[in-house]
Amino acid sequence: MIIPHPLLGPRDAQEFTYLGDASLLDRPDPDAATAAEDFHAYAYLRDNPAGQHQELWFHEQGDRSWLVVTRDTTTHEILNAELARDVVLARRAAADKGADA
Amino acid sequence: MTQQNRLSGGQIDRSRTLDFTFDGKSYQGHPGDTLASALLANAVRLMGRSFKYHRPRGVISAGSEEPNALVELRTGARQEPNTRATVAELYDGLSAQSQNRWPSLAFDALGVNDLFSNFLTAGFYYKTFMWPRAFWEKVYEPIIRHAAGLGSLSMQADPDTYDKGFLHCDLLVIGAGPAGLAAALTAARSGARVILADEDFTLGGRLNAEVEEIDGQSGADWAAQAIAELQSLANVRLMRRTTVLGAFDHRVYGALERNADHFAAPASDLPRQTLWRIYARQSVLCAGATERQIAFQNNDRPGVMMAGALRAYANRWAVAAGQRVAVFTNNDNGHRTARDLVALGVDVVGVVDSRPSAPALGDYPLFTGAQVINTTGKLGLTGVTLRRADGGTEHLRCSALGVSGGWNPDVSLTCHQRGRPVWDDHIASFVPGGSLPQGMHVAGAAAGKFSTAAALQSGIDSAVAALATLGLSARPLPCPKAEDGAYDLVPLWYVAEGKGRKWLDLQNDVTVKDVKLAHQEGFRSVEHLKRYTTLGMATDQGKTSNLGGLAVMAEMTGQSIPETGTTIFRPPYTPVAMGALAGRSAGTDFKPTRRTPSHAWAEEQGAVFVEAGLWLRAQYFPRTGESHWRQTVDRETLAVRSSVGVCDVTTLGKVDVQGKDAAAFLNLIYANGFSKLPVGKCRYGLMLREDGIAKDDGTAARLAEDHFVVTTTTANAGPVYRHMEFVRQCLCPEMDVQLISTTDAWAQYAVAGPNARKLLQKLVDPEHDISNAAFPFMGCGEISICGGLRARLFRISFSGELAYEIAVPTRYGDALMRELMAQGAEFDVTPYGTEALGVLRIEKGHATANELNGQTSADHLGMGRMVSTKKDSIGAVLSRRDGLNAPDGLRLVGFEALDGNDLPAGSHLYAKTAPPTGASEGWLSSAAYSPHLGKSIALGFLSRGQDRLGETVTVANPLQGQSFTARVVSPHFIDPEGERLRA
Questions:
Q1: Which overall architecture, per CATH, does domain B592-652+744-846 show?
Q2: List of chain B residues whose C-beta atoms are within 8 Å of the C-beta of residue A35
Q3: SS3 for A14?
Q4: Which CATH number fits domain B294-404: 1.10.8.60, 3.20.20.100, 2.40.160.40, 3.50.50.60?
Q5: pLDDT in tens, B722-743
Q6: B887-969, which class in CATH?
Q7: The pTM is what?
Q8: What share of chain B in percent tops pLDDT 90?
Q9: Residue B614 needs a FRET pair 20 to 30 A away by CA distance; which of B151, B193, B817, B910 works?
Q10: Interface contact B252-A84, CB threshold 8 A
């Protein structure tokens, strides 16, 4: 498998370590009233889609970036790869904007 | 007479003679021969015994699809089983042995299976070895294992090396027959980076096996000229003896190059084989086609071969498989064999063509509308019986029969990414369907284009199309003038006449009757058919047999073949040796070995080393007169407690954390708080997983407001760093904090014991005050030693003694160790290894990987109160779950042996009053003999342990039938008040 690293171009999947579902980016608010249930879902519950799946890969043998890779689990086609950091910052910026509006 | 079946011509080098042996008997052949062609030249037809019935078998093909002629090649450590004689290139001194026979190939005792064949039909194993159940392990399995399996292993280590390599190209051309050569030439002349790979040692594919003209010269000469041109181009890599094994995700191909299989032993600078990973932006599959059989009674006698193989042996290897030859065909192609053999002076006794009318290609007896219904001969073919169109029978005396049931495009690689072949009525076979592997094109016979002209044209077209997708323009090669005959075929899968066995799968001994029986017993799906009869499940993946089996099944179900299904192929295309898959990752090179900077010094001291992850660590340092490791470890332990010892702790993970938000970041990754830690101080940190279970521990030293150095355990250095980067990049990307692993940048030594400060004061430069007042317990700082060498000093203690860890840049590690030993001589300084380190920390009650084993929480470790409720941290929320904080939960406590025995770590704990069976109340995680206390002690987890100090418990180790008693005590066996480490 080849992962198109957003900074380094196409890299062999052997250079990466797989973590799993990119839902791990959405760590719940520990101060929420429902924190216990939220963290239970965050730690244990995963979707298992046949098709597009967003997942976290760590470029351990490379530049140590965490990537969000969008992969089709039925074909292994890789549709997108982004820096996880950029994904999170963009989401938070969008959420802030939503809150302001 | 030797090589009595050798003809004139062919692509063999008669100027050199090669000697070889088969089953101990000597023969001769020539360079260019395969083992199979050389044996046939010497009139050896019997080459093996079949898998199940031990039937005498001979070679049927001239390529990698061979199901029968499997031999053990070479002797001694290089002996390899199941080598196909058809692809074993002959070399001088080659030694081969037949397989699956005892005591000899001509007389095989297990040939008795053949007499019982009525009982050994499809599903025999499933039906017979069912009951009684108890018989399976003791009786059935040993019998089956003895009878099963083909070749044998030498049981010696492979002396050769195997390599792995990586290649990139614009166009990978798989197969160097007419289509492949045309594709490669077209692409190569355009300047594209081309790889042309073929499993054969002579490129050209069928052009070497046929008599035909291309552009007015022989096909073989045209191929040689094309290859010479390709060889001369810098943008082309020609890979002979290279099998493309699989098409994987994202345009990656696996290929095996046999660098030295054609020598008795590889030259010292040559690997035996190389496993290539080829990144091909586009590919053209030109794998050709495989001829298929027609099943009839006793069609498995040595001498019955594929018609195309007979022709290949004659034209390429100048070998007549027999002096008198017959052909049985259902298509025009079979006639070529008769034509070519006649031209070479071989006696063709007849061509039996099942079609009512067929044109003869030469002067030979032709029986149209006829079928071969049986054969004669025991260890080799002596004749065939045929049913003529007029209903009469006739017996033809012959020693070889060429059978052609038509040709199947070799679609294997098109299936590797879930592609499904589709049926083509015109050739009565499957051709590549849609959903090919990314970037793959198919040309030539593999695409069902059987004439040479069509193969050449499709090769050219595919190359142009493939390069166009890359934005590269290629000028099509002018298509050479070549044979463009039609391919006329009337399908015939098996001959109905006769009750005897008609063989479909020769390697797994599956007959037409077996397939019918499977159908009768309800196995309708092709996948079930395969598994029940084992059709196509041998090492050849049924290349010559799958379609025949499918056709019989289709007839039984009354459906068409494509309605009945197809079987697809998986990688590898042909079998691969385990050694090639392992490559250099064998023996001690299986993984890297990491050595600390003072490793050489430790070796000089005679240290015994232990593996810790990838690291080699000094386990203990035996001295003259110490006959048992415990003596050494006791001495090292006591030396630390009484004076001073030095231990190499370089392997601990070190992470440099810098940035304005460094303290806030540590607050998030550690359960306990770090924001108030002053500069110049260290603090123990407990790291949890998000599910609340303890992940790792270590210390964090604050060197500046915005600079910490974090340590991890040796084993978790990699995973903890990965986790920290996850938190930094994925959970708090707004923070101003940077991380880098500095594990390899610093050599670090623990200096522990009452004289530790006195020793260090001799090294530390005088401007740095490390007195107790100036540099108290848990102090840290950047200092210089030995006249200006920068160093870091941490006053932390794993042993419970007055102790420091001192770090210097890696390249000074060896020098520092030697200096500590020299300066410490006056204190009788003692180097100690991981074993004494373990005893010291157990005596002090410090947890390590044995306690942080992925099952234990902060509460279990007695550190529940460390999990701050004033701040968020990873794992904090779920660590507060009821289940992890139950009142009867486990708690880390200490144990003292009461009956003078060693306490085995891993033992289970039971209340003294209860029988030691069933669910236990906990376990011992770490155990040691404490020379300081003079008894065996242990750490462990015990239900409500904190409330049970003083209680006697049973320590059960049922694996070794042991049961001891121990007293529950505080885990801090030494200095519970911490006076020593603050001294």
A1: 2-Layer Sandwich (3.30)
A2: 877
A3: helix
A4: 3.50.50.60
A5: 999 999 999 999 999 999 999 9
A6: mainly beta
A7: 0.89
A8: 86
A9: B817
A10: no
